[in-house]
């Protein structure tokens, strides 16, 4: 038996992206009406009205292509919906405008330099809308025949497709079979296949087969069977990011790197050539620049070199809107000795417009927790919700929100489908919030390793006299907290 090939890094990127969004899966937009007025609770968004309205104004400007090269800073205490608002913004942008989300700490990776990571993030946030002539196959599906080999490995098949004037049979490979299965293409569908990329688009169902279906969704669309040749040339418009163009054209990497996320450093000559080319296309009317949004969450994690890079990149001819979030007050900018508002250097702060978020009241917390429980398919009793709300008020919204799923596990253990008061109480005692954790730390401080590497070994000493030095002294500027 042959050993199957194992790939270890293909999925990694997707998973991290999912984790970032999962806590915000209930959010589908900013919850504004047509006049940018925020509704008290809409599209999963609750309260924080001023900040949402401000984000709406930014959204309008981004959509009008007016704000590329500008910076927006969202500042507020933890758990006040900064990341949530950024997610709402990205949902409202639509698929044409690129949105890239990174966390400040992600910029410091082992395989890429800080500036390369930032450059890639910036270039992922610039869309290029390209008009191209491509060759497509367009027709009504007569029959799809797929032969699955018993081992499940290689698939083969045939696609019979027709226009009113002709009919042809195409051989199918693995990739096309997957595409057809994913799009749920059936006989009677009118489809279009891009010959270069293999992308399949369902245009609708053929009128001639309308009577064959008795169960149809309300949005089933009927179209005419195409006329003439099966293969046609068509002008299509598609949007790719500058980064995607970089990767495809960087000879060492090739387009496969796009799927693995393993792009490595891209040479600056490649980027220069691409910039020149894109500028040319723009002149000739073949391409349009779509400045998108680069969201940098926890931006206070960046250091002074990153900040000066951002300052420079904002001046660039292709610059996205940089949307940043921080929970720092007056604090030190990493890599310097200076304190400044939000830990951002003054020159960057100066070019930013600032949106504030503020803590929620009990009603808002209750509504958000109730939306989260619906999203996580957890049924809460009224008492349980009331207690969670109180916990949210006294600790943090995020902590209370995390207790939802934990309490559910506890209720399941006693075979109940509803989370009740005792379940939440139990969850609250099992898992500490940060305040109680700090109290615990203060009580048992000597048993933990401190910044100087001091720790008391053994469980009966609560004084620092017997402290044993282990490990090296931690460097000041690597571990700074405010
Ligand atoms: N206004 C809001 N409406 C709905 N959900 C919210 C709102 N604000 C915060 N949340 C949810 O509460 C949790 C914590 O908010 P988050 O945006 O992560 O806070 P921050 O980024 O300010 O620390 C997330 O699950 C988030 O989706
Ligand atoms: Mg956040």
UniProtKB/TrEMBL annotation:
Record's keyword annotation contains DNA damage: yes
One of the record's GO cellular component terms: Swr1 complex
Region (Disordered): 460-482
Location (main, coarse): nucleus
Compositional bias of kind Basic and acidic residues: 472-482
GO terms (BP aspect): box C/D snoRNP assembly; chromatin organization; DNA repair; rRNA processing
Domain AAA+ ATPase: start-end pairs: 68-359
Intracellular or extracellular location(s): Nucleus
Root EC class: hydrolase
GO MF assignments: 5'-3' DNA helicase activity; ATP binding; hydrolase activity
UniProt keywords, alphabetically: Activator, ATP-binding, Chromatin regulator, DNA damage, DNA repair, Helicase, Hydrolase, Nucleotide-binding, Nucleus, rRNA processing, Transcription, Transcription regulation
Catalysed reactions, as listed in the record: ATP + H2O = ADP + phosphate + H(+)
Enzyme nomenclature, EC number: 3.6.4.12
Family, as annotated: Belongs to the RuvB family.
Described purpose of this protein according to its UniProt entry: DNA helicase participates in several chromatin remodeling complexes, including the SWR1 and the INO80 complexes.
Protein name: RuvB-like helicase
Organism: Scheffersomyces spartinae
